[in-house]
Write a structure and sequence with these properties.
The chain has 249 residues and is mainly β. The chain has three helices and 15 strands. Its main location: membrane.
Length: 249
C-alpha cells in the first residue's frame, strides 16, 4: 500500500516578500531604538577627534532611555529609564536644548554640581586647572579646516581621560568665560575645536540628562570633501582609510 505524498507548499510570492521586508524593518527599528544608531558629523566643532564626513555608531543603552530614544521622539514618558551617568570625557550625542529636533555631538567636561570655567584657554573644573600640554601642530586643512599650522594641546581630565584639542585662535571669545555652576540633572558640553564650537559656553547651555541620546563609540566610515558614502567613484581620492573602524576617544 502506498502512501500519497502531500503536495509541497510553494515558497515565494508577494506575500512572503512583504513579510520578510516588514520583519527586517521591525528588526532595524529595534536595533536603532535600543542598541545602535548611526550618526554623521555635520560640522567641525569636534576636530581633531571627529571630522566632517565621519560616520559613527552611537550606543543607545549607555545612559538608559528617554523619550528622545524613541522614533520621532514620541513624548510617551518623561525622565530616563535604566538611567546611567555619563563620565567626564565621554563623547555624547544629545538633543540641542533650545531645539530638540537638532542633534549635537560634544564632549562631557562638567557633571552635575561642577563649577566650570575657561581661563586663558585652560579648562578649570571646581577651581582646579585641567592639565593642558602642547603636543605639536597639525598642518593639514582636512583636519583643521584652515590653511596654516594649528597648535594641538593634550588635555587630561581628573578621571585620567585625555584627548587632543585645537587652538585655532589665541585669546578667542571662548578662552575666558564666567564660572558656570552645573545644575542637578544637567551636563556641561564642549567641543574639542575650542575656538570653533557652539557648546555649553554659548548657545547650548546646560544639557538636561533627558536630552542625552547615546555615547559615540565606533567610527566606522569617513570620507572627505563633502562626498556621500554612496558616491563610490570618489572613494579612491576621498576615503579616509586610516580613520575606518576606530573607537572614539
Amino acid at each position: 500500500m502506498s502512501v500519497a505524498e502531500k503536495p509541497e507548499k510553494k515558497s515565494g510570492g508577494l506575500g512572503e516578500t512583504v513579510s520578510v521586508i516588514v520583519q527586517a524593518l521591525i528588526l532595524a527599528l529595534v536595533i536603532r531604538t535600543f542598541l545602535f544608531q548611526p550618526f554623521s558629523i555635520p560640522s567641525g566643532s569636534m576636530r581633531p577627534t571627529l571630522l566632517e564626513g565621519d560616520y559613527l555608531f552611537v550606543t543607545k543603552w549607555a545612559y538608559g532611555y528617554s523619550h528622545y530614544s524613541l522614533p520621532f521622539s514620541l513624548p510617551l514618558f518623561s525622565g530616563r529609564i535604566w538611567a546611567g551617568e555619563p563620565e567626564r570625557g565621554d563623547v555624547v550625542v544629545f538633543k540641542f536644548p533650545p531645539n530638540p529636533s537638532v542633534d549635537y555631538i560634544k564632549r562631557v567636561v562638567g557633571l552635575p554640581g561642577d563649577r566650570i570655567q575657561m581661563k586663558d584657554g585652560q579648562l578649570f573644573i571646581n577651581g582646579v586647572g585641567v592639565p593642558r600640554v602642547k603636543v605639536g601642530q597639525i598642518d593639514n586643512p582636512d583636519i583643521t579646516e584652515v590653511d596654516r599650522p594649528v597648535d594641538v594641546y593634550r588635555e587630561t581630565l581628573p578621571n585620567g581621560d585625555s584627548y587632543d584639542t585645537l587652538d585655532l585662535t589665541p585669546n578667542s571669545i571662548g578662552d575666558n568665560t564666567q564660572e558656570f555652576h552645573v545644575p542637578p540633572g544637567h551636563y556641561f558640553m564642549m567641543g574639542d575645536n575650542r575656538d570653533n564650537s557652539s557648546d555649553s559656553r554659548f548657545s547650548v547651555g546646560f544639557v538636561p540628562a533627558e536630552n542625552l541620546v547615546g555615547r559615540a563609540n565606533i567610527l566606522f566610515f569617513s570620507i572627505a570633501g563633502g562626498a556621500s558614502p554612496l558616491e563610490i567613484w570618489k572613494w579612491p581620492t576621498d576615503l579616509r582609510v586610516s580613520r575606518l573602524l576606530h573607537f572614539v576617544n
